Amino acid sequence: MTDKKAGASTMSKTEYIVEAGKHDLVMTHTFDAPRDLVFKAYTDPTLFAQWWGPREYTNRMDKFDVRRGGRVASRPGRRRRPRARLSRGAP
């Protein structure tokens, strides 16, 4: 049995395929970006850690082997500090 779920926005679409009884997840996403840049974002552990996971946390990459049969393991690191917001107010 294959379960397909789709999430869409005005710029992109993500499709997931999950088969019962298997430990595989197939995600297909169309990006509005050059192919080589998307590939690098998925295969460079430093770049991957910048965007994977909750935005409010840094990511710790425990394992990062993106070859077929490899393993990727990450966990949330410390909570990111909010950026200071400057506003012009009355002196």
Which descriptors would you attach to this protein?
91 residues, 5 strands, 2 helices, two-stranded antiparallel sheet
Description:
- This protein has about 90 residues and is of the alpha+beta class.
- The chain folds into two domains: about 30 residues, no CATH class; about 50 residues, no CATH class.
- Helix content is about 20%, strand content about 40%.
- Strand 1 and strand 2 form a beta hairpin.
Per DSSP, what share of the residues sits in E-state strands of 2 or more residues? 35-45%
Number of strands: 5
Low-pLDDT runs of 5+ residues are 6-10
| Widest sheet, order of strands | 1-2-3
Euclidean distance between termini CA atoms:
65 Å
- Let me know the largest β-sheet: 3 strands, antiparallel
Cα Rg: 18 Å
Per DSSP, the total helix count is 2
Ordered list of secondary-structure elements with their pairings:
Elements: E1 2-8, E2 13-19, E3 25-29, H1 35-43, H2 45-51, E4 57-64, E5 72-79
Antiparallel strand pairs: 1-2, 2-3, 4-5
Helix pairs in contact: 1-2
